[in-house]
Structures are given as structure tokens and as C-alpha cells.
Design brief:
heterodimer; A: mainly alpha; B: alpha/beta; Rossmann fold; 2 domains; 6-stranded mixed sheet; 4-stranded antiparallel sheet; 10 strands
Chain lengths: 267, 249
């Protein structure tokens, strides 16, 4: 893998963001709105429930972590969409650039933008609602890492889908995190789900993260073994997503779709 | 004879029942400009797309500077570059940003210096900080050519490189490409509908019609050899003959 070429993909995204508030604003805006909204909901629930249960880490923490995964996914897909929107495939793919280098560039872009978003979320959640993850310290890192891998897998898979189905399929990608969230048990234990939904949950790495976070906030020991399994699943999904993207790309090279992408199909 | 910078052998590409390219073979030698001409739909762009590795041939091979594109795609394409009117650089990056990004993709050494040279060569210095999408079509063409020269390619693919620029700029660009070839940097595969330009620039011309090479030779002597008044007339004659041959009875 040539790191200069990976850097070229990242640099292009940096140039686009530097010159465009419309691209930078969404990195923080929707996250901030979500934190404020759920922050007040949790504060209200704490005031009316009188159960002693603290909704702030349970709900606001869940919102924050789910937003992190969504930001990682969107960071990857938005970087890909920039090439869709500017019809840049021919310029990039008729060069020495390898698919692995292109995907690595998209992933690095997703990492950087999502970390910026995470920093804003943490700051706002702490400043406005007193939610701090500092107490968990480095123990948070594996949880974030699994979410991070899951976001990459979803982002690369979403990009493969758009490469296969054409620019108009972009709208299929945005709701993916919303579709996954009921199965991932973001706001409730997996045990409340019907059996078939629990079966789906077991295949989703984020569900191990949220179950684990709930265990910790309930004062139970961190379920490292199950989280490790979630991590392995996430690594597998990243590999599967990259394989899918490469397979779709090879098919597009065979059919000629890459050179005529705006036509959406070669039929 | 030096090894060719491009060797295309028995190239075929079919789309369902359509044979877009049907057994095309040719070479481009170092220091040679080869013109690829033919009517619309003859298979020129399909051939170029296969050379650029963005379209997989049904059969046949493409070798760039001794490297098989199917087996050593990245290394082969590192020795190539292209400019085409249908592949403008991203309009939301400035001229300099585009050259930097693509210079990194081609791993160009001393990139900042190379960009400065190309901005001068292609009269783009005053547009350095201008977004490419704001350039006129002629300026965008010059930017595309500057991008194509970034890595001093062994094989330069030019698809109608002067199609949207004024005669004076076109002359400068032709002179630049001639200088590039004479400096021994590499060979050029040039498609154009401008027969005057083909005659002036190309050492050899390939007439492509219905996916096959139907005529090949020196564009300066070819018309006379086939009883045509000019290359333009020969083009029209060959295109009509092949059109009628292919027409349904």
C-alpha cells in the first residue's frame, strides 16, 4: 500500500472541508442537537422517575455512542459521495491508485471527522449535562473501537451499494444506522426484544457494546469476553465490506460501469 | 526497434450482442504519436478505456511499457496518464489543489516544483487558486493536459485534447506535446476528429470502424495512396464504406 496515494485521498477531503462551511457544519450540528435534546429528556426523566436510576449515562451515553458510530459511517460514505457528485471515478480509477488505497483514504477521512465529532459530543455532554466518560478512562477505548469498526464496515458497505446501484441509490444509505439501532439495543437491554430480534442482535457488534455499557453503569463488571466477540465480529464485517466493495468494483470494470457511472447502468 | 510503450494484442470487447472492439492490435513506440480516428461509436473510447484499465477486455492483452495491465495494473498505470474532455478534474478543487492531489496519486517526486513548471507551461499561473469549475472549457482542457503531464508518462492518452480550445492555444498545446515526444519521454495515443491536427501531429494513424482497424499508415501519404484528396475525404470515404457494409440488407 502506497501511503502517499492514501494521503492524496485524505488531502482531497481536507481541501473540500477547508473551503466549505456547508461540509464542516454537519460534522457537529446534528450531534449537538441530539445531545441537547436527549440531555433534557434524561434530565426530565430523572426528575419524574424518583427511582434513583440515573438516566443520564444510560440514555445520553447511548445517544452519544450511537452518534459516534453514525459519524464514522457517514465520514466514510460522504468521502465516497464526493467522488460520485464530482464524477471523479474515471480520474481516480484510471491511475495507479489501488482499491485498498482508495478505501484506506476514505476510512482515514471517516476516522478524523468522527473523532472531531466525538470531541464536540463529549465536551457538550459534560458541560451541559455533567455526563463524563473520564471515570471509565481507558476502559472506554475497546467499546469505542468496536463501534468505530462497525461504522467503517457500514460505511464501506454503503459505498459499495451506491457503486453498484448508481448515484440515485444514495438515499438508501442514510437510514442504515436507524434500521440497525432497534436490533443493537441502543436504549434498552437486548432481553426485551422478541426472540428473532435477539438472534439478529447477536450478529451485530454494537449490541455487545451497549449491553456492556449498561452492565458497567449498573455497577457490574465489564463483560470483556462478549465485547471481544463483538470486536471479532466487527473485524469480520470490515473485511466482508471491503471484499464486497472490491467485488462490486471488479464487476463495474467488467461491465464498463466505472467509465459511464452517471448512466447508472450499462444495460 | 525499441520496446513499445503500448502494445495492444487481439483486443476484443463485447457488450451483450454488440462487438464494440473486435480484434484490435497495434503498438505505440517511444517517441511516436499514433492517431486513433474513426466515426462516433467506432470503438475509440472503448479501446482507450481498456488501455486505462477501467474496462476489462473480453479477450486480448494491453501491455504498457512491458507491464500487462491485467496483471500489474497499478505499476502499468503509473507509467501512463490521460486527458479527455469527458473526464474534467473535480470543479470544487482549485487548479493547484487538483494538481497536488493527482500528483500524489502518481507519486510525483518534487511535486511542488513540478506543479510550478506545469502552471507556467500551460499558462495557468493566474488560476492557481481558482476553482477548476470556474475555468472556461479551454482553461479546463489546459488543466487536464497539465494533470496528464504530471508524471512525465511513458504513455500519454489524449482523447480530443484540443476540442474546446481556440486555435492559438491549440497550436501551443500541439507544440508542447511534440516537444514532450521529441524529448524522448514517451509515446502518445491521440484520438481526434480534426484530420488537419492528426496529419500535423501523428506519425501513424489507425482508422477504426465498427470495432476494427480498417486502415493504417502515415497520415501524410495515406490519402494519396488511397486516391483521396485529403485525410478528411479519406475518413469520410472509409466511414461510409464501413457503415454500408454493416448495414442490414
Amino acid at each position: 500500500m502506497n501511503l502517499t496515494r492514501v494521503g492524496a485521498i485524505v488531502l482531497r477531503q481536507f481541501y473540500l472541508m477547508r473551503g466549505s462551511p456547508a461540509r464542516v457544519f454537519p460534522l457537529f450540528a446534528w450531534i449537538a442537537i441530539d445531545i441537547v435534546l436527549w440531555g433534557f429528556i434524561t434530565r426530565y426523566l430523572n426528575s419524574v422517575a424518583h427511582t434513583g436510576f440515573d438516566f443520564v449515562p444510560a440514555l445520553l451515553g447511548a445517544v452519544l455512542l450511537w452518534n459516534f458510530l453514525t459519524r464514522v459511517m457517514q465520514g466514510v460514505t460522504l468521502a465516497f459521495f464526493e467522488d460520485v457528485w464530482s464524477r471523479n471515478f474515471l480520474n481516480f480509477f484510471a491511475t495507479p491508485l489501488r482499491i485498498s488505497e482508495y478505501l484506506a483514504g476514505l476510512v482515514v477521512t471517516g476516522v478524523v471527522t468522527s473523532l472531531l465529532g466525538l470531541a464536540v459530543m463529549l465536551l457538550l455532554a459534560f458541560a451541559a449535562f455533567g455526563l463524563s466518560f473520564a471515570a471509565y478512562g481507558l476502559a472506554m477505548a475497546p467499546f469505542l473501537f468496536v463501534l468505530f469498526l462497525s461504522g467503517i464496515a457500514l460505511g464501506v458497505f454503503g459505498s459499495a451499494l451506491v457503486l453498484r446501484l448508481g448515484p440515485a441509490s444514495e438515499w438508501l444509505i442514510w437510514p442504515i444506522p436507524t434500521l440497525v439501532s432497534p436490533f443493537a439495543g441502543v436504549f434498552y437491554p437486548i432481553g426485551v426484544l422478541p426472540y428473532w430480534m435477539q438472534a439478529v442482535s447477536k450478529a451485530l457488534p454494537p449490541s455487545y457494546v451497549f449491553e456492556g455499557m449498561r452492565a458497567i453503569t449498573a455497577g457490574e463488571p465489564a463483560p470483556w469476553a462478549t465485547l471481544a466477540w463483538g470486536g471479532l465480529l466487527a473485524v469480520g464485517y470490515v473485511g466482508l465490506a471491503c471484499w464486497t466493495f472490491a467485488a462490486v468494483y471488479r464487476k463495474a470494470i467488467r461491465s464498463g460501469l466505472i467509465a459511464r457511472y452517471s448512466a447508472e447502468s450499462v444495460a | 526497434m525499441p520496446a513499445p510503450v503500448l502494445a495492444v494484442a487481439s483486443l476484443h470487447k463485447s457488450f451483450a450482442d454488440l462487438r464494440a472492439v473486435d480484434g484490435v492490435s497495434f503498438v505505440v513506440a517511444p517517441g511516436e504519436i499514433v492517431g486513433l480516428v474513426g466515426p462516433n461509436g467506432a470503438g475509440k473510447t472503448t479501446t482507450i478505456n481498456m488501455v486505462l484499465g477501467v474496462l476489462q477486455p473480453t479477450s486480448g492483452t494491453v501491455t504498457i511499457d512491458g507491464l500487462d495491465v491485467a496483471k500489474n495494473r497499478s505499476a502499468a498505470l503509473a507509467r501512463t496518464n490521460f486527458a479527455a474532455v469527458y473526464a474534467p478534474l473535480p470543479g470544487n478543487l482549485t487548479v493547484e489543489q487538483n494538481l497536488r492531489v493527482f500528483g500524489m496519486v502518481y507519486a510525483v517526486p518534487n511535486l511542488a516544483k513540478r506543479i510550478d513548471e506545469l502552471l507556467v507551461d500551460y499558462q495557468l499561473e493566474r488560476f492557481r487558486k481558482t476553482k477548476s469549475g470556474l475555468l472556461s472549457s479551454g482553461e479546463q482542457t489546459r488543466l487536464g493536459l497539465a494533470k496528464a503531464m504530471l508524471n512525465r508518462p511513458r504513455l500519454l492518452l489524449l482523447d480530443e485534447p484540443t476540442a474546446s480550445i481556440d486555435p492559438s492555444s491549440a497550436r501551443d498545446i500541439r507544440a508542447g506535446i511534440k516537444a514532450f515526444v521529441e524529448a524522448g519521454h514517451g509515446g502518445v495515443l491521440w484520438t481526434s476528429h480534426n484530420m488537419y491536427e492528426v496529419q500535423e501531429m501523428c506519425h501513424r494513424v489507425l482508422f477504426l470502424s465498427r470495432g476494427k482497424i480498417v486502415l493504417e499508415g502515415d497520415p501524410k501519404t495515406l490519402p494519396e495512396a488511397h486516391g483521396a484528396a485529403s485525410l478528411d475525404d479519406l475518413f469520410v470515404t472509409v466511414a461510409h464504406e464501413n457503415l454500408h457494409e454493416g448495414a442490414a440488407p
